DNA sequence: TTGATTGCAAAGAATTTGCACTGGG
DNA sequence: CCCAGTGCAAATTCTTTGCAATCAA
């Protein structure tokens, strides 16, 4: 339950935090949301939580490691519940659909490249962009 | 010479455009600049070109395929002269140094993944982040 | 000449912050 | 009760736009 997640993260259990965490956990198909989208979902559920608070809470979640922030093409940030396991993303430039994947060979080569260039890797981001199966024939 | 590049791109040859293109071509070590950085370099050279113009010109260059725009971590866009050949980037999170690389195996696997997930790929962005050789021991 | 290009200042979009108020522990 | 957390509006940051003046062809 969310309450415990919040406590574990060292965050006081407040209504906005619980609600926002709920929203994120509830997402099955669309795991990646902008602050704005979270805001709208909350409004639909009758919760009147300020947009500023959503940004603040999501940033806290990010710091606490509960959530990951991505900068997809186009500018605005999207947030995703951190599942614990690393993965990369492929994004449909038409409908916004996002799929996740992991490719061990790619991961391995990234490490190799960083090494060859003398970098010690801390992070990486790989985004593929294209048309998903539903959009490519339109 | 820049004049010809501009003409080929269908752009009228104006002072701001020539100057900005010069700046970009002059970069050897630091090929990736923000609009702000271009602006400052121009000021140092005594050219008084408005920041808005720089954004406009860089956007035109992007459209014309002369320049590529990247969204590195942190938000602001950086522009790089388009060398014609695709490459990915590794960025030092301490000093901002950027290296470029290409890995055929990674490219190949990306295509494979997109295919498996039913996407037709149009583009991708791969950024590795870490400490470069100069920064990792500090 | 004349439409394209600039500069400036103002508008926008996304995100953050200041501050008085509220609520969780 | 008391301080962390919130809401709102104002501030920031990066980027784009409107419009009159200017410039290249």
How would you describe the overall organization of this protein?
The structure is a homodimer of 138-residue chains. In chain A, the strands form 2 sheets. Chain A has a 3-stranded antiparallel β-sheet. Chain A has a 3-stranded mixed β-sheet with strand order 5-4-6, with helices on one face. The radius of gyration of chain A is 17 Å and the shape is globular. Chain A is built from 5 helices and 6 strands. In chain A, α3 crosses α4 (51-64). With 138 residues, the first copy, chain A, is an alpha+beta fold. The A-B interface holds A 71, 73, 75, 90, 92-93, 99, 101, 103, 105-106, 109-110, 113-114, 117-133, 136 and B 71, 73, 75, 90, 92-93, 99, 101, 103, 105-106, 109-110, 113-114, 117-133, 136. The first copy, chain A, binds a DNA duplex (25 and 25 nucleotides) through residues 12-17, 34-36, 48-53, 55-57, 59, 75-77.
């Amino acid at each position: 339950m969310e309450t415990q997640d919040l406590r574990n993260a060292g965050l006081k259990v407040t209504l906005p935090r619980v609600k926002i965490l709920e929203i994120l956990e509830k997402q099955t198909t669309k795991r990646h949301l902008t602050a704005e989208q979270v805001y709208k979902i909350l409004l639909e559920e009758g919760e009147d939580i300020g947009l500023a608070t959503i940004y603040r809470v999501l940033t806290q979640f990010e710091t606490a490691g509960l959530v990951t922030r991505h900068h997809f093409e186009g500018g605005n940030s999207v947030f995703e519940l951190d599942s614990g396991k690393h993965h990369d993303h492929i994004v449909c430039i038409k409908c916004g659909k996002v799929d996740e994947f992991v490719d061990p060979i790619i991961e391995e080569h990234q490490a190799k490249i960083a090494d060859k260039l003398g970098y010690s890797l801390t992070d990486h981001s790989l985004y593929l962009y294209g048309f998903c199966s539903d959009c490519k024939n339109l």
